[in-house]
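G.,

No rush on this.
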Amino acid sequence: MPRMIYDPDESVWGKSRGLDPEQPPYPLVRHLLDTAAMALHLWDVYLSDAQRRSIAGGMGCSGDWARARGLVGLCAGLHDLGKVSGFQFCSRHGAEHLGASLSGDRTRMGGDRLGHDVAGMRAAADVLAVLGFDADGETVAAERVAEIIGGHHGRFYRNEGGISSPFFGGLAWEEQRVAHASAVFGLLGSPVAPEKFKAVSAVLVTGVVILADWLVSQGSYLRGRQEALEPSLGAHFAQSGIDAASLLADAALVPVRLRRTGFAEAYGIKGEPNPLQRSVMEELPDAVQGGGRGGILLVTAAPGDGKSEAALEAERVFGDAFGTRGFAFLLPTMATSDQMYGRVSGALLRQSGQGAGLTLVHSMAWLNSAYSDAALDPGQGVVTCDGDEGSAGRERVAADVRPRQWLRGSKRPLLAQFAVGTVDQALMSVLPVRHNMLRLLALTGKTLIVDEAHAYDPYMQVLLGRLLNWLGAFGVPVVLLSATLPASVSDRLVKEYLQGAGHDLRVLREKSFPAPYPGWLYVDGALGEGTQMSAVRRQEQAVERRMDLAVTVEPVVHGSGGVRNRLAVIERLVEPAAAGEGGTVLIVCNTVGDAQETYRRLRERFDDRSHEEGGMVQLLHARFPGDVRESRTREVTGGLGRSGPRPRRRIVVATQVVEQSLDLDADVVISDVAPLSLLLQRAGRCWRHENWWVRHGYPGGQGRPSWAGQPRLIVLDPLSGGGGVPRQWGEVYSEFLLGATSKKLAELGASSIAIPEDVQDLVEAVHGAAADTFDWDTPDGRQKAAWTAHQGKDLAERGQAGLVAVPRARSVRRLHDLHSLPGDEDEWELATRLGADSVRLLCVFLQEDGRRTLDVAGDELVPDPPAGGRLTAVAVRAVMRRTIPVRSSWFSAEDADRFGAPQSWSEHPMLSDVRVVCQPVAGGVAGAVVVGGKTLYLDADLGLVRR
């Protein structure tokens, strides 16, 4: 066993690439001390009380947070211990400066190749034993620290132990590993090994280590320290502690405390909170006093009832009760996330949150207009590997790390105090992908808000449940929002959270957690008991929001049918608004093709002006280029929003993009038949702001047209009267759910739906537990087949999610369980949505002179720099904002080369996988292209057309 020594050889280097080649590389021991100092600062400033409580409790240090703090610093200070190995010879510059006592082992040690993360994990046991960490007996502290060292590049490995490989060197190298560890250990005050170290706590500690390493590995910081090394390691460590504060502030990771304001001022609205919101503000604080280990809040109310503001008020309550700071507000789609980002940004600014870290978190967030071109320029790189992982050309360098832009780099946006994005970004934390522990660190310091909780298929519900299980283990407060969530689903999600919090599954099976509608249910993580919104407030909310929704079913035929032809029926229904008194109509179609066809027909019939020309008919769907879709969404929400100005005549033809989180109010909603829960979502865009306008006045003093005497949903039902699902709908919706919805609507007859009283019963009738049973005595063979297919798909999706998700939190024994699937998985290799395989398509235009341009007019060339040239951030943005997400199945294997990206894009992480369809231009008109047996072309008015 090597002796205890405190004089590490500073020729052993930690960082070399990107630094001044005229100077020796940055000493490893100093990088370890930098990281340890940053970890201590993260503990003091960045981590929430809830995170500190969770980590300390998992170490058996609940009453001694200072001890837990030192242990976190030690884990960070040992993270690169594996670099004291053959790693030292992977850089010529580094090897040239290696001391004489070590440099002679190059030939012997250079034969094997091992990542320094794995090397550190295997070498940790011997080193930790010298530091007093006993790996024997019941304590697993040394093993856990070793696992953390091995996982600091975002993937946990099975610890097979042992340093017999020549890669680890001989006695001199052993002594240097101990010397480096001893220097860190001593400057941290020689922290005492914990009696226990739970896996879930170690996951968070690993996240802290990764974050600390990234922050102190910025090139500009390292170059500054390299130029003026302090004379002693003690002085260096002290300076690192001072520097940590500015590095954290420059990264916008210092939490801010918002100024408490009144409800109306905070959210920029007139009037007082409604009964639902007032109940959260006044009654929820009493409900959360019983536990102390987090809880889950389910808010159920009709669309337009202010659930988002209720959730943000709940976050205030949870922050005070549990010590969390900030929130992650997650939604089903990028479009809804973009909308919510604007609302949250305004709310933060109105509460003096100018210095708060706020990020938009989805794969295309950087295309949002809130992110300027200047913000996309790469800044100082964070070098997290120096050549020993991955093949040539795959060095792990994270870009976009400029001051105040640090959070916009890869895998970092969730770390902000406030984040808005798609739920997929959180679900990644419970898939065996690289850096899932960093995502968990990001989520556990704040309140998690999941909007539109009903919008997720069985596969995503299982992943969401697994995420709630982990958050329950950490005591993270959660808010679920929904207008149409079946009780069986909400009950499963609540029980997943409680199981993670430590409640016995056998006891939970005997319980149920019914949520009132409208209202809220809070279930305490520690006590496992539920508290509901008071009956008085529920009644007040029901009265304030009450609406009798008239439902009319129009039997239709697609493609023919005379007076029952779908387009003919729509023409008749919109005529009062389009040609008569005026008004606003929202038409929701099930497919983009149907929406395009409907829009064309209405333009021909009522107003030949295009959307861009200010015509009364507007079109919105997901197959517009990103910049066009963003612009059209603003126009549609502006015309049908709460504040106005409200157009005299407006017909909006759209797809499912308007179902969720878009603030629209139409005089009448016309919809293709869809599963009943979605029809109710679409109906939520009918007279959405009526009660508000009655109290505060209609925009411009213009009320409803006389033909709109009450809110009305008109359902275009091709199944009514024995018809079938239109072929072009494919598998957009389950045939069983469509049939069950059609049957339920027929049972309603001429009755109206009382909102909110009837909503939950209707949802349960089609989507609830009762719908999972089937009368096998029915003679309808088609219905039997539809039910069987529906149930089979449901079970298959749940089973698939169970196979790919990480284990539940309390069943994890070794951290390797979080990355137990074979291979080198990363985000793009495991999906958060089944059937979501997609590519981004770019339509470019081949001009008659041979130029390829981004526009039909030929003014903007496709960026294609020569060999060795660089694509600017502005050019990348110009391309990506014009792309359209489409199914990857549109392209065959043979199409990959035909529609591949230019060679100059091949190494770019965003552009390399873009499919480029080149439309020939003749006489200023773009022609179509055949792709996969279908004709494709981009039309300025219709969007991407596929026939």
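When you get to it, here's the other one too:
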Amino acid sequence: MTTASDPAYPAHWEADVVLRDGGTARIRPITTEDAERLVSFYELVSDESKYYRFFAPYPRLSAKDVHRFTHHDYVDRVGLAATVGGEFIATVRYDRINAQGRPASAPADEAEVAFLVQDAHQGRGVASTLLEHIAAVARERGIRRFAAEVLPANSKMIKVFTDAGYQQKRSFEDGSVHLTLDLEPTAESLAVQRAREHRAEARSVQRLLAPGSVAVIGAGRAPGGVGRTVLRNLLDAGFTGRTYAVNKALGPERRELDGVPAFPSVGAIGEPVDLAIVAVPAERVPEAVADCGEHGVQSLVVLAADYAESGPDGRERQRALVRQARSYGMRLIGPNAFGIINTAAGVRLNASLAPEPPAAGRIGLFTQSGAIGIALLSGLYRRGAGLSTFISSGNRADLSGNDFLQYWYEDPATDVVLLYLESIGNPRKFTRLARRTAAAKPVVVVKGARHSGTTPPGHAVPVSRVPDATVSALLRQAGVILVGTVTELVDAGLLLAGQPLPAGPRVAILGNSESLGLLTYDACLTEGLRPLRPLDLTTGATPADFRAALAAALADDACDAVVVTAIPWVGENGAMESGDGQVLADALREAAAAAPAKPVAVVHVEIGGLAEALSAAARTVNKGAPQTPPNPAPGGPSRADSPGETEERGLGQSLSTPLGGPPREATRIPAYPAAERAVRALAEAVRYARWRREAADPGKVGEYEDIDEAGAAALIERLLGPAPDPRGTTLTASDAQELLGRYGIPVRPTLPAPDAAHAVAAARRLGYPVALKTTAPHLRHRPDLGGVRLDLADEHQLARAYAELTATLGKPEELAPVVQAMVPRGVDTVVRASIDSAVGAVLSFGLAGAASELLGDTSHRLIPATDRDAAELLRSIRTAPLLFGWRGSAPVDTAALEELLLRVSRLVDDHPEVVAVGLEPVIVAQHGLSVLGATVRLAPAPPRTDLGPRRLPSY
């Protein structure tokens, strides 16, 4: 039998998980060393729970029971335990059985399963989580079905099985309920798993952001210092819960710091603490975390540095910190964090180093950098924007942007999500969550460290092999608004938080400067918008003129958005006047409030107070619009809890309502110091609104009657062999052609030409005209280097071309020439598909040659691709006009090209062993297309982490 240190111990089954209430637990295999833990656990289980487990009174475990439940072979008999603080809170086990229900070994594929959960932890979703993990273990060991006997009165356990989403059978036999579960994952079981993941992770964030009590560990006895600063910020923000100061150096005579109760330890407080801010040096953090864990603290914010950002030793300290926090069931922000802020009226939490908390607003902000967090807070403050929540995660060793997307998705206080990311630990999950969130509210991302090629210091995450440009394309496919700079992040956030989404790309431009109007017009064209002719109000225009012009533009059905440009105007005495910005702001807001819901942005030059006045909270509320969102955040405060909050915050349009709906209130109008910045933000809003409309109909995955899925699977199994190379293997040309043919993708044959005689024989077999080309790696797909001869009409031309080729470029054995029949001329393109363990399967398209290789003009979509994805792949490259008849050329058969993309997508999606496909070149003619070259790479199917049981990442 095994121990945790035994080589046979399945360490990969260990996992940290988030439970329904937001706390964490560790799941691991039970070993022979767990006898005492098992006995202690069983003593804490009620008699009723024991009766439900054993169908009879069972007050204690015998020595034989303990031996049986702690000795496993991890194949036919497996036991898992959920632990908190190193102690068992629940167990699950399976025993393989045969058709008669007796103990068996493989190939028997059924097992009996049983659970036992400590009463104090029932209702936390422990059994449901354990079922996911024991089912994954069973599938790994060749078990396909679980059987369970449950007493009819044990309704909680029956619900665990019936709610799991697996296909199941249920019967009543001999006084008990007999359940049989098919363990093959289904769409329903995956949906159940993801819904539980969402609720648990959102709840863990809600516990962090809305604590009832906070302890600042490391609050110094003298003013100043990190801990004392955070304590002061908590008090100044008016935190509505209980606040405590903790400093182990405090003597019995010191009972207060800054007017709050002070204690030498968390344990000495004697009352529950929900959140601890750890502001002690790194070497003292483990002691503080242990103090918190042993006294029921739920969440931690670790401000201390000197972790993974400092090198290998710090990285190991960081891993130990995460393991320690999770072992007690706590979630963690940091280390090296700047802090968190929640502006909700019922919380008013500023547990950060920011001296001035932002105003309450509708923007949720997450940043992985403290310095960038400071810059963003400052920029938003200067421009009058308010936040719902702010998180600066530092090294984000535990809680990450994924967790906050889970929370903000249903948070009624957040209309727009802004994220500054330097790394994405789980791109596949981030893309999935971003797509879901973006369907309800905008998600704006700026990604740092895009071109460094390495993980930023402190970020212990897997590094994807996929280029940043590909990841960016996939994020845009998911509806993410991806911007290039922090300034653009703020610009886009201001517009999206304060204005309705545009219905289209038509932009009206009006103002009192002809030159500024023309700059705005040019910027619109650059961003792909459709600007109307600018309306010049002349420099003598007054605020009343602006109001009338804006009202007319907003009422015009020919425009979808308005950009107002303003410079100081000419007064009655002929002098230039900046005037009172408040007057112009009131005029513009009055026009916007009375007009249809179209976005308005202002470009201004040297008009004092205008930006501040435009960003001030609006006072007029649309009485006909709903004031209470239909989906409150899990456990979050209701809007009804905060009377008057709507007017104080100056709410923007609720982006969880359908597009084109009325704004909730007269909105803030964003102001920009440059036309380019205003137009760029507006263009992002236009593209996002278009994505929202199109996301309602994602398209269909290609279905073709001539696809031979079973034949392809058999061929792949034969090609991989009984012991496939884990590094993969590249198929020969003939094998690749055969596999692609199973999916209706014919590849034009090529015949080897080791000498001129073989070339002539090949041409006779294929039929003239033919092409002669080299296949040497340094010349492949490089016609510019002279390695290709086309339209060879007869034997004489072929022989001469062969002689020229070998005389110029090298010997035949170096060039490996081939002969191929000519195909109709068209546009040379490239189709590729590849699988990355972090991102998933990706389908790519571009034009052959320099366009895709040198300029990076390639589009990407996640597999499985739909017909809409295929159409967008063609149209999203910059050189797309060449496919649709550029400068008088005939358009090519894009329908055939889209079908080819869908067939490649189906091949890779149906067979995960196909880890790479390259079709180059694919010549697309006016009618039909020809695949001239193909490479296929096979490897053992990589694990699908997104289909496995829920688990927290361990970096």
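The two ends are 29 Å apart (CA to CA). The chain has a mean pLDDT of 87.

Enjoy the weekend,
O.
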